[in-house]
Write a structure and sequence with these properties.
about 80 residues; mainly alpha; 2 strands
């Protein structure tokens, strides 16, 4: 998530090299871009929380669809889209 956070926060970063756990964000010319790791860590935490929320919502939607199928109830279009045939 740290790479995604850097790309979100620093639009001039085009690549990120990593050596021994140290990140080296670079611009289009290969120059190292100075970044605030505190801001990167905060953004990475936000992105992870958002990803976790979306993953849980998908799990909940599938569970709802399954429960409705078992009960013989109509599914919403969103629930129906979770079914893989």
């Amino acid at each position: 998530m740290k790479h995604e956070a850097i790309y979100n926060l620093y639009l001039n970063v085009k690549t990120i090299d990593e050596t021994n756990g140290v990140l080296y964000p670079k611009d289009e010319n290969g120059n190292i871009v100075s970044i605030d790791m505190s801001a990167v860590n905060t953004k990475a935490t936000e992105l992870q929380a958002e990803a976790d929320t979306q993953a849980q919502a998908k799990i909940d939607l599938k569970a709802s669809a399954k429960a409705k199928l078992i009960a013989g109830e109509a599914l919403t279009e969103e629930e129906a889209n979770t079914i893989v045939l």
